[in-house]
Design brief:
Four copies of one chain form a homotetramer. Helices cover 46% and strands 13% of the residues of chain A. Chain A is an alpha/beta fold.
Chain lengths: 338, 338, 338, 338
């Protein structure tokens, strides 16, 4: 698997929550771009529509990206921060809002083509519901599907990666988990519609990320993009990879490799109170090391999966995570076996 | 929607957990059948294979059911209690176990035909995994799919309802949520493969039951069966309907009705320490009353869903759940409006 | 139990989250005060320090409250929105920040005295930690305790109600659940230190609210204040009371009454997209009706609690929530018994 | 911290759940004892009353333990498997059951004295409630407290360690979390009443284990015993330590050491389908290695906790878990600094 690391540009900006309206300073876009380029191993960025990239600054951004040696990996249309989509975008009960959301996304698709960016990451976070008996699940899912299908048909050269998340900002979001998002992708009838896994969203959804990767593969190779971060499994804490989960990332990286994932490994964090570049850089280095671990142990991991023996898997995990002596012994053992 | 109430026969038997090997006495099968028939409004039963129904007692059971005026609503092959399936049935790593599970299910299908039972409820609870890096998600899901497809093809006159549940007895079960189960049903390529919603399993999965109903409808009318019980959303507590959730059941019943569900409403509880017949009877009466509520307020609920105003929905809920004065006022208001 | 309803003033203002910086307009403080006074049954307000109440507007607020017939039920010092407390207030690693937090709270205590407000509601939401191995749980809990003790000693005529919440804005907050908050209250050695239950926080903490009420009573009568709202148990959704949970509120209100709670019933919601006054008013009417239900059934509920029979409790719940016929029958039965 | 490893004897026996009545064979007690002794580093066992240890076999067990070089670390009276306690033991609504539970425990205390076992591990798992409005939280907590106080007073030479767990076998258990258990321990007025942390129970309770350790220390040194296992945070899966959580154990071991814990490190697993001795042995080796890690990095970890910088903590974690090169570099760096 190619090691292509990216970051969502806004991760380097200010942070806030519903209580505190800004834990940090708000840097300029070009300043954030320079900070992104300075993070070791970062060669791509994702730009949020309206915030980072608009018709009026697209030329300037293209130059800046080129100067910094960065690729625009995806554009993420802002369907979540603009209050006009506060009660939904593609599935809004108001036809005018749905139209606006689609037209706005088309503008972003045009810019993506212009920048040579191959992927639109769609996170319709406001599309969902808060209260029971307050939404027509059938009709609204239909609208969501129609909107995505229209976009995918209009831009067959672009990939549309649907990012799922069970909750926040709504108490329930329509694109909630891998499998329901795959059902919608299939319903569009277009092969350029796929899925983005955000590891943190998958944890909150109760999923095993590796199993979600397999589901996407089985549904016709629909895993288009990866967002990385960590959390305690009940909230999208957007933390540094590896600070809560360890084994889960090793398994995730292994199955990405095994399923032939060829997309970007992009960091999507929200470093409320930490140094942003430092936090993102840490995530990348964790992943680098998990990738190295997989490369060095690919056949052994495959054998463990085949063996289905938790005791053997535990012994292996200890050997690579903790026990240098055991690791060396194991390595010698496998040399002798070979 | 027709009010057809059933119960899983074993609900009336002994209960145990991993600590206590029996909170109650273990009654005879025929005794449980009599108890089931005595619960008000029960006209159907679900029989667990091996426990309640086998080749050797099928004739006797047919007579007993007939005498008691009960229909056999479904057969649930025992793929979960027999230790031979302790590490999986249709997706076991051992080919012989997979074969045995399929052949055993075929025996149950034959008995179902014999009893005039139209539906096989498949809950492969042992098919899943406990530890990370101990399962081949891809291969095992494939085996599961093949097994179900073979059965559905061999018995085109029967419906196969896949019951999903995220965990227990494994820490992760393969048929975990509505949408992944629909993906597998679709992958079989057979329209006689659908889904059973167990309301408690859906709660544990983090689903809104009504939304799951809509997903099944959109996937080609694949909601085949309903199991009812309640819980606190983190564990399959199998409690009396309505003792934890209230509004969620009202919404569930409304959408079942709206989506034209024509199957059975079957109780699937595990009354560890309570009187079983009493606990099951209570669930049915809660559902009866939710059904009446929906019948009396169908158009008003539709209007609220269209309106998407939580304050209006709250006012309606209070009126039907708590405030008789408000209810009367509202009823008069709607009369005047009409 | 006296029916004294209040609202946190800010509930009537703008709402935002980390994505969207304002779903609504931002009204003036006096405008919010008028809106609060117009909600049926509201006779008290809680004021957030710095936002709603400061030394410079205390006189004006006193007049406005008096004109509108409102009592100031509590002052909530802003220890959570001011970025200076972004990494903690009373338990900040910086001594100067801890001092500032205490001194700021003292200012608020002085204003409370001035307004005749008897209670300071302390929610040190930023006091906690996000990452493992990044906090000295012992030292920081000690600082928290010292700060509260200093305040409680300096203002023996005021009550200090500690509001617990397991997470948000930190991934882990120090005052997380009822029992740990009681331990800290006891450690201060002051009887004017108690606890605020926010029903939504208790749900997220996995608590049964009624049991938390009993814990506070057993710890020397330390339940000082109540905040009401609803959620789906994993996130502090701050929704309308009764739209998710039903039975839990009935039980909560029953045990408040039984334990002799004599404080305010204050609404603490965050109506992101709904009409604020409508949403708050709904919560109050749900509570009014639960209170009426308890008043009419106090002895029957006591008998059910004594009986410990879930089937009987279920029958009662159905009778009061759904079945008017059954309710009448039951009422006649109890009349005949009497 | 002394490395004293123990195991609950029953971990080596058969396993079952409410579906499957036995995944394994049921070995003899003496056979389990031999298996326990054969696990590397095990020098202690915990015996469950009635199952493993009774008046009639106490002499035989004493000899067997002596022969195998094992200490009896604790006795765990069976208050959870005997159906007579199915609705509660110390807090049962029936006075005769409460008396029986206390008298039975006294018998176990006598045996403990006889065996030179210094600690009674009390897990009253059936003491709690399933349904709302079916329990008198106040009265039952009072009974629980009285029972424990009576025992602690009668056996001042024994330590009574209360093991908390939020749910299972009841939907809600009275000893649910660290802090409420400390409140009860304090209420007994006896210093020989403390707490057992089961790491898996703490995860399910939403606790940070290290913070729970600190709470127990602050409440007068009441951490008496430790049970180790792992899970996915929503269910007590009783898995091998380190197969889900990694960093959490490192932090736990660090704070045990820092707080001067001098008790046993006992394994409490439920290896449903795995080789029991292998699974338990793995947990011990994970802990051995975490302990070594703490010993080698004690001052660095202390500095990180003081620093409160998640980026620095992440870098350290990577260095000790994954990056041997970085670890060596860091080691040299600290040597040069020193």
């Amino acid at each position: 698997m190619e090691r292509k690391f990216a970051v969502i540009l806004g991760n380097l900006g200010n942070t806030r929550d519903r209580f505190c309206n800004g834990y940090k300073e708000s840097p300029e876009t070009l300043d954030m771009l320079r900070r992104a380029a300075a993070i070791p191993d970062v060669t791509g960025v994702e730009l949020v529509g309206s915030w980072d990239i608009r018709a009026d600054n697209a030329g300037q951004m293209r130059s800046a990206l080129s100067d910094l040696g960065l690729q625009c990996v995806s554009i993420i249309p802002d369907l979540f921060a603009d209050p006009c989509y506060g009660k939904g975008s593609y599935s809004s009960a108001e036809a005018a809002v749905r139209r606006r959301a689609i037209d706005y996304t088309r503008t972003m698709c045009d810019i993506a083509r212009d920048l040579g960016c191959p992927l639109i990451n769609l996170w319709p976070g406001q599309d969902g519901y808060d209260y029971l008996l307050c939404a027509d699940y059938d009709r609204e899912r239909g609208w969501m599907c129609e909107a995505v299908a229209e976009l995918a048909e209009a831009y067959p050269d672009l990939k549309f990666a649907l990012e799922y998340k069970p909750k926040e900002p709504r108490t329930h979001c329509y694109l909630a988990r891998m499998a329901d998002t795959l059902l919608l992708a299939q319903e569009t009838g277009r092969m350029n519609v796929g899925v983005t896994i955000d590891t943190g969203h998958a944890f909150v959804a109760g999923e095993t990320v590796a199993e979600a990767i397999v589901l996407a593969k089985r549904a016709g190779g629909r895993l288009f993009h990866m967002h990385f971060n960590d959390n305690y499994t009940t909230t999208d804490d957007d933390m540094i990879v590896g600070t809560v989960h360890t084994v889960a990332y090793l398994e995730t990286v292994y199955w990405l490799d095994r399923c032939g994932y060829d997309g970007w490994l992009s960091m999507d964090q929200y470093p409320y109170r930490e140094d942003a570049a430092g936090a993102i850089g840490e995530s990348i280095q964790w992943l680098q090391q998990f990738l190295t671990l997989v490369e060095h142990n690919r056949s052994e991991i495959a054998a463990l999966i085949e063996k289905q023996d938790p005791v053997a898997t535990s012994r292996f995990l200890r050997s690579v995570l903790l026990d240098r002596g055991l690791a060396e012994h194991r390595m010698q053992g496998s040399l002798q076996t070979a």
